[in-house]
Amino acid sequence: MLHNSLIDTLLCLSAGADPILGIQNSALSVLAQATPIATPIPAATPTPIPGTLASLAPIDMIRGLTLGAVAFVIGLIIGKPIITWLRDHRIGKHIRIEGPERHQVKTGTPTMGGLIFLIPLVIAIGIFMDIPRFPSLLLPLGIVVSCGILGGFDDLLSTVVRNRGGLTARFKMAWLLAIGSLTAYILYVPLRLDKLYFPFLQTPIEFGIWYIPIAIIAIVGMANAVNLTDGLDTLAGGTSAIAFVSYGIIAYLQKQPHVVALCFAVVGSLLAFLWFNAHPAMVFMGDTGALTLGALLAVCALMTNQWLLLPLIGIVFVAVIVSDILQVLYFKLTGGKRLFRMAPLHHHFEMLGWSETQITMRFWLVSIVAGMLGVALALV
Which residues pair with 92 in a beta bridge? Predict the structure, then answer.
């Protein structure tokens, strides 16, 4: 009897209940069994631990999924008019001569199609999300606008204007660094998100001022990685959607409704773009969409403090940019030899004889598995 009462008291203490109340209930329980006329008082109900499934609000996920569906519908409605406008203004893709030969048939396909998912995303954030309650949403909104404008200028210069090369690599990198630096400062100072959740550790790690260069590398690196991945129909869009789903689930587990809504709004708008980007593609996202997606994915990872999982959840993007870097280094070190048949990585598989749809579907599968593992690690 006394043994059971002590166990009840310890359970109350471990659950975070009032220790005085636990002791009181245990004493009353003992007296109740000793005196038949007394009525035992039930022990305090354990309060759910923050972050566990028992403490989550389903309405947050309902709103996020609904907003994603709304963004999808908006994207479908504006998709065809945008493609028509791009075609009328001859904003078409110019395929690299050094690329795979079968890509030459894509010459002239409208690019700058990132507008199909950027416009619904701006509408979703600006109108349907509660910015007064969650002012931190202004940060991803700024990423969408700034990176979208930078990528749009690059697409226009490489198509309409005679400058077929678009913006120079140095100029584009300088602007990405500026955007990344400002974003990192906002994350560090006003938002105070200089932490990292490490798997199997209950207490987050604080990085202090070192958080700023880490955030800059994450934002700029992921923007370039997604841009390089945008080389096959549905490849960048599909893998990005999977990554945003993963971070949407992580944000839901963390009870961050604004990040949940943001992630699934991106997913819904991306699915609308994929409707028109399905092989053979009617439109390409161009730098307008690719740079924005990469930077926005990094921001979502940083806002959840789970940016250590970004290389895993974005494993396809990491593999693509690493393959490109290794190809260049190996070429210079060996005096002209190639590590891959063609870089980035998806072109290597094309040269091996894989079809475009085989590559995209298999990369999607890898992304799904990586996303599942990323969410699993976020739970431990």
Answer: 110
Distance of CA 246 to the CA centre of its chain: 7
Please report the sign of the dihedral spanned by the C-alpha atoms of residue 318, residue 321, residue 325, residue 327: positive
Q: Which residue has the tokens 């990685």?
A: 225
Residues in the chain: 380
What average pLDDT does the segment 148-167 reach? 82
- How far is it, in rounded angstroms, from Cα 304 to Cα 223? 18
Task: Look at residue 231 and give its three-state secondary structure.
Answer: coil
Pairwise CA distance, residues 129 & 142, whole Å: 15
CB of 220 closer than 8 Å to CB of 180:
yes
Rounded Cα–Cα distance for residues 145 and 65 (Å): 23
Is there a cis peptide before residue 50, judged by omega within 30 degrees of 0?
A: no
Query: What are 55's two structure tokens?
Result: 């403490």
- Is pLDDT of 310 > 90? yes
Residue 41 pLDDT > 50: no
Answer for the pair 258, 275: CB distance below 8 angstroms, yes or no.
no
How many whole angstroms separate alpha carbon 108 and alpha carbon 91? Answer: 8
Give the pLDDT of residue 96. Answer: 61
What predicted TM-score, i.e. pTM, was given to this entire model? 0.84
- For residue 267, give the nearest of 242, 292, 250 by alpha carbon: 242
Q: What is the spatial distance between Cα 289 and Cα 151, in angstroms, rounded to a whole number?
A: 7
Residue 26: both structure tokens together = 């245990």
Of 120, 106, 170, the residue nearest 272 (C-alpha): 120
β partners of residue 110: 92
* Higher pLDDT, residue 25 or 177: 177
| Dihedral pair phi/psi, residue 275, rounded to 5° | -60, -40
Residue 165 pLDDT: 66
